[in-house]
Write a structure and sequence with these properties.
single chain, alpha+beta, 15 helices, transmembrane helix, membrane, protein tyrosine kinase activity, Bact_polysacc_biosynth/exp, Polysaccharide chain length determinant protein, PEP-CTERM locus subfamily
Length: 520
C-alpha cells in the first residue's frame, strides 16, 4: 500500500510534465481528427477471364497465370512516372504545387489500395480503390487507373504474341538460310568427290573385280601371242616356210566372235522370222563384228605392202603378214592393259578415299538433318505463334475485364474522427507516462528509507521527511495551478498558431500519413 502511495506521489510531482506531453499529443490528435476533411473512396473490380478457345485446339502464346499477370500490372501501374503523370494531370493532392515529386508519389501510393484475390478453383480478381477529399477526383483517378490497366493488358498480350511470332519468323528465316548453305556444302562436296562417294562403293568394287579379271585375261592373251610369234619366227628361220594352218589357227578374238555370232544367227533363223527382235539384234552384232574384222585385215595388209620393184617371196610375204597381225594384236592388248591398269589405279584411289569421304559426308548430312529438324520445329511453332497472335488480336485469349465500373462516391468513408481522437489521447497518455518513467530512472536521489538502505548500506533508526510550511505549500499549489493553466492555454494556442501561420493541420497529418503509408 505504501508503494502505491509512493508512486502516486511521484506521479503528482511529475504531473506538469505529464500534462505537457499528453496535452500536446492529445490536443494535436483531436485537432487533426476535427480538421481532417472527409475522404471519399472509389473502387473498381477487375476479373481475369480464361481463354475462350480451349488450349487443346490452340495453345495460348501468353502462359502466365492470372495472379502473376495482375501482380505485373500492379507493379507497372504504381511506377513513379505513372503516379506523377496522373497526379499532375488531375491535380489530385491538396496543396500539390508545394509538394516535391517524392511526396507526390508517396501520397498517390498511400491513397491507392490494390487487393488481389486468387486461389485454387477460384476466380482471379483485382480490387483497386483510391481515396480523395473530392469524390469526383477519386472517380477520375480510378478511371485513369482502369484505363491504364486495360491498356497494359492489351499491350502485354498483343506485345508478347507479336514478339513471339517475330522471333519464330526470324528463326525460320535463319534456319532456312542455314539449310540452303548446308545443301550447298553437300552439293559442293559431292561434286568435288564425285568419283569417291560412298553410295557408289559397291559399283566400284564390282568394277575393280571385273577389271582385275580382264587384266589377268589380257596378260594371258599377250603371253599366248608372244609365244605364237616366237614359234612362228623359229619355224620360218628353220624352214623358210610358214605352216599352212598357222594363219587359220591363230584367228583373232574378233574373228572367233564373228563365227560364233553367225552360228547363233543361223540357229535363230531356224526358230524365228527375220523381223524378230532377237534376230535383228544378232544380225546387227554380226554386221558390227564383220566390220571390225575387215578393218583389221585391211590394216594388216597395208603394213605388209612392199615396193613394186622388189621381187615378191610368197613365204616371206605370208610370214610378214602373220607377224604384222600378231604385232597389231599385241599392241592392242598392251594398250588395253595400260588402260585397265590406269583405271584400276583410279578405282583403288577412289575406294581408299571413300571411307574418309563417307565420314565427312555423314557429318554434313547429319548437320543438315539437325538443321532440318530445327527448321521443322520452328515452322510448327511459328504456326502456333501465328494462331496465338490472331487469338490475342481478336481478344479471344485470357484477358482482364471490368466487373464493376468506378463510380463517384456520395458518402465519405473516412476519417473515423472518434477513432483518431481516442488513439491520439491514448498515445499522449502513454507518452506522458513514459516521460515520467524516464525522468525517475534518471533521478538517483534517495526519497524513501529503503533508498538509504540500498544506497548507503545502513539501516537508519528513524527518518524524518521534509516538512513544508503553509506558505511553501501554497506556493507549490499555486505554481501547479499556474502550470496547468499555462499548459491548458498554450496547447490550443500553439496548435492554432501552427494551423494558421505554418501549415494547416490536415496537410501536416496528410503528409505524415503519406510517409507512413497509412490512411485514417
Amino acid at each position: 500500500m505504501s508503494n502505491i502511495r509512493y508512486y502516486i506521489s511521484i506521479f503528482a510531482r511529475r504531473m506538469p510534465w505529464f500534462l505537457i506531453v499528453a496535452g500536446l499529443i492529445s490536443g494535436f490528435a483531436v485537432a487533426v481528427a476535427i480538421t481532417l476533411p472527409p475522404a471519399y473512396v472509389s473502387s473498381t473490380r477487375l476479373l481475369v477471364e480464361s481463354s475462350q478457345i480451349p488450349g487443346q485446339l490452340a495453345a495460348p502464346t501468353v502462359e502466365l497465370s492470372g495472379e502473376e499477370r495482375l501482380q505485373i500490372f500492379e507493379t507497372q501501374l504504381l511506377t513513379r512516372a505513372n503516379m506523377l503523370e496522373i497526379a499532375r494531370e488531375l491535380d489530385v493532392l491538396p496543396d500539390q504545387r508545394n509538394l516535391s515529386p517524392d511526396e507526390i508519389v508517396a501520397g498517390m501510393r498511400s491513397r491507392t489500395s490494390i487487393r488481389n484475390q486468387a486461389g485454387r478453383n477460384r476466380a482471379t480478381l483485382m480490387t483497386i480503390s483510391f481515396e480523395s477529399e473530392d469524390p469526383r477526383k477519386a472517380a477520375a483517378v480510378l478511371n485513369e487507373y482502369l484505363t491504364r490497366v486495360l491498356n497494359l493488358d492489351t499491350e502485354y498480350r498483343t506485345g508478347r504474341a507479336t514478339q513471339t511470332q517475330q522471333f519464330f519468323e526470324q528463326e525460320v528465316q535463319r534456319l532456312g538460310e542455314q539449310l540452303d548453305q548446308q545443301s550447298g556444302e553437300i552439293l559442293r562436296f559431292k561434286t568435288e568427290h564425285a568419283d569417291a562417294l560412298p553410295d557408289a562403293q559397291d559399283f566400284r568394287r564390282n568394277r575393280q573385280t571385273a577389271l582385275q579379271e580382264r587384266l589377268v585375261q589380257t596378260e594371258r592373251d599377250i603371253s599366248e601371242l608372244e609365244d605364237q610369234k616366237q614359234r612362228l619366227e623359229q619355224v620360218f628361220v628353220a624352214t623358210g616356210q610358214v605352216q599352212a594352218g598357222e594363219v587359220g589357227a591363230n584367228r583373232s578374238p574378233d574373228q572367233v566372235a564373228l563365227d560364233e555370232a553367225r552360228t547363233q544367227l543361223r540357229e535363230a533363223l531356224l526358230i524365228y522370222s527375220e523381223t524378230n527382235p532377237r534376230v535383228k539384234m544378232l544380225q546387227a552384232r554380226v554386221d558390227q563384228l564383220a566390220l571390225v574384222v575387215a578393218e583389221a585385215q585391211v590394216e594388216a595388209e597395208g603394213s605388209g605392202t612392199r615396193d613394186a620393184t622388189v621381187p615378191v617371196n610368197p613365204a616371206q610375204t605370208l610370214y610378214e603378214l602373220q607377224v604384222a597381225e600378231l604385232d597389231s594384236k599385241l599392241a592392242s592388248l598392251t594398250d588395253q592393259k595400260q588402260r585397265t591398269e590406269v583405271e584400276l589405279d583410279k578405282l583403288e584411289d577412289a575406294i581408299a578415299r571413300t571411307s574418309a569421304n563417307a565420314i565427312a559426308l555423314e557429318a554434313l548430312e547429319r548437320d543438315y538433318t539437325n538443321i532440318q529438324d530445327q527448321y521443322n520445329q520452328a515452322s510448327a511453332r511459328l504456326a502456333t505463334a501465328s494462331t496465338g497472335e490472331r487469338i490475342e488480336l481478336l481478344s479471344r485469349g485470357q484477358r482482364v475485364t471490368v466487373v464493376e465500373q468506378p463510380s463517384v462516391p456520395t458518402e465519405p468513408t473516412k476519417p473515423n474522427r472518434l477513432k483518431l481522437g481516442a488513439a491520439g489521447v491514448g498515445a499522449g497518455i502513454l507518452a506522458g507516462a513514459a516521460l515520467i518513467a524516464l525522468l525517475e530512472m534518471l533521478n538517483t536521489s534517495a526519497r524513501r528509507p529503503i533508498d538509504l538502505v540500498n544506497g548507503l548500506g545502513i539501516t537508519p533508526l528513524a527518518t524524518v521527511p521534509y516538512l513544508r510550511t503553509r506558505r511553501e505549500k501554497f506556493r507549490r499549489r499555486a505554481s501547479l495551478i499556474a502550470v496547468i493553466l499555462v499548459i491548458g492555454a498554450a496547447i490550443p494556442a500553439s496548435i492554432y498558431a501552427v494551423h494558421t501561420y505554418y501549415q494547416p493541420l490536415d496537410l501536416i497529418a496528410d503528409r505524415i500519413m503519406n510517409k507512413l503509408g497509412v490512411r485514417g
